[in-house]
Specification:
single chain; alpha/beta; Rossmann fold; five-stranded parallel β-sheet; 23 helices; globular
């Protein structure tokens, strides 16, 4: 039976899975959610012997029900291949008594590769299934990692164009170089004068602009999104939590049916929501621990029931989490308000007009699966240094936020459940912050790119191909714009002004 998708703001607005992937955002500005969360189609014991590709098919076929077996398996085979530098795709490192799910072994060394390697294939397949004739324009805002992973995924994919907006000065030098050197005749990247929330809000406005949509259609274009607002990003993320449970079983680290807690460094809320979906599919997950940096809007929400973006925007050493509007939280809000589109729409209206909203006590009670914590800049650096000195394991700043919050949670709760931490980026993406945390005196005065060989020496991990490639790559993109000029910029790029 085909699983239908509906808008979080109006359940009467529905779509098939392929239509939801193709559109990205519902016409009313809502996010597409499945009418129900399907159950895992295999037993926990069966997960033990399954490859990543087999797990991906088992999970994704339950969500993407209007894709044929042949179509879905072809998308999976093209996505999870030799572009990943480990056969497991998502290996697990055991460090002390914590398990780190390394999601950064793809072509851009960040967890976004896990979904953005497959999204272009899902999207072009969806276009054919739905008779879409116009060129698909992928419009994306990035806080550092989504942009590069999306550009790498969509580069020179027939029938697509991709335009990425990132905050000038709001990403690491490595992240910026990865984007501005990206090859591909269908690729554009623009630095905006503003922060990530400005970029994300601007992209959402463009999606909601009916006049612009008509203008695009007349020129043979249609917008779609590679951000985690697209259900085609979210569903592939469910896979790696299911796969990780199978690996822990296979390695004898847990018993069948034993619960694990999952800690996720969280910005836009997509990655932890995927873990939540995995739990609702039947994966034995205890607490979902939401880890924030100093932009702790999500921590405050879980503590108080009020989501309030009216605060200072902090630039931190974990820039992919420098976000005050967590778009995917809307999917959780829809779930805890009893799938009531009117309630969800009203809360989102309050967020847009007043910058905040407060959920009811009844809704708060439905958040019992979640715990939350945050790490200061000092605590993040301290965690990197302490774990390195104790074990020799080097982690990036985002993973360190999660590691700190995981330990905080264990101490405060007394919960002895084994914990899986989502390790979302290679330390090579944030080399200066990582090495300065380990030894500030030795590394703080050196330029970021100078430090790459030092990280190789300190970590004992070879410099990834993704880093080697950017060191002498040609800068191809230098376009910048003000946050209020994003529409004009898109029209100029597409030649429709």
């Amino acid at each position: 039976m085909n699983l239908q998708y509906m808008s979080t703001r109006n359940p009467k607005i529905t779509a098939t899975a392929s239509q939801a992937v193709l559109k990205g955002l519902a016409d009313d500005g809502g996010l597409f959610v499945p009418e129900r969360i399907p159950a895992l189609p295999v037993s926990l014991g069966e997960l033990k012997g399954m490859t990543y590709q087999e797990t991906a098919y088992a999970v994704m076929k339950e969500f993407l029900t209007d894709y044929t077996e042949e179509e879905l398996k072809a998308c999976i085979a093209r996505a999870y291949d030799s572009k990943f530098d480990t056969r497991e795709i998502a290996p697990i490192a055991k460090v002390d008594d914590t398990y780190y799910l390394e999601l950064f072994h793809g072509p851009t060394i960040a967890f976004k590769d896990m979904a953005l390697s497959i999204l272009p294939h899902l999207m072009t397949t969806a276009a054919k299934k739905n008779g879409a004739e116009g060129e698909i324009v992928i419009l994306t805002a990035t806080s550092g990692d989504t942009g590069k992973a999306a550009m790498a995924g969509f580069a020179d994919v027939e029938g697509t164009r991709i335009i990425v907006f990132y905050p000038k000065g709001g990403v690491s030098r490595v992240q910026e170089l990865q984007m501005v050197t990206q090859k591909g005749d269908n690729v554009d990247v623009v630095a905006i004068h503003g922060n990530f929330d400005d970029a994300q809000s601007g992209v959402k406005e463009l999606f909601g602009n009916r006049e612009l949509a008509e203008k695009l259609a007349a020129e043979g274009y249609q917008f779609s999104s590679a951000n985690s607002i697209n259900i085609g990003r979210l569903v592939p993320q469910v896979v790696y939590y299911v796969y990780a449970y199978g690996r822990l079983l296979e390695n004898g680290e847990i018993q069948e049916g034993e619960q694990v807690n999952i800690t996720v460094p969280t910005g836009n809320f997509g990655n932890i929501l995927a873990a939540c979906y995995a739990k609702h599919m039947g994966l034995p997950v205890g607490k979902l621990i939401c880890a924030s940096n100093e932009n702790k809007v999500l921590f405050d929400f879980f503590q108080t029931g009020t989501y309030d973006k009216n605060r200072e925007f902090m630039l931190t050493t974990s820039p992919s989490m420098d976000i005050l509007i967590s778009s995917n939280l809307e999917r959780l809000i829809y779930q805890i308000c009893g799938r009531d589109g009117e309630t969800d729409a009203e809360l989102m209206r309050q967020l847009q007009t007043e910058g905040k909203y407060t959920i009811t006590e009844e809704m708060r009670e439905r958040l019992s699966d979640f715990a939350a914590g945050y790490a200061t800049e000092e605590e993040t650096a301290e965690t990197i240094r302490e774990i390195y000195e104790k074990t020799g394991y080097v982690m990036d700043t985002h993973t360190a936020v999660a590691a700190h919050v995981c330990e905080q949670y264990k101490k405060a709760s007394g919960d002895t459940t084994k914990c899986l931490v989502a390790s979302t980026a290679s330390p090579y993406k944030f080399v200066k912050s990582v090495l300065t945390a380990i030894d500030g005196d030795a590394y703080s005065q050196k330029a970021e790119l100078e430090l790459l060989p030092e990280l190789e020496r300190v970590s004992g991990v070879d410099m990834p191909r993704a880093i080697r490639e950017i060191l002498d790559a040609q800068v191809r993109h230098g376009r910048e714009c003000d946050a209020d000029r994003m529409q004009e910029t898109v029209e100029e790029i597409l030649g429709i002004r």
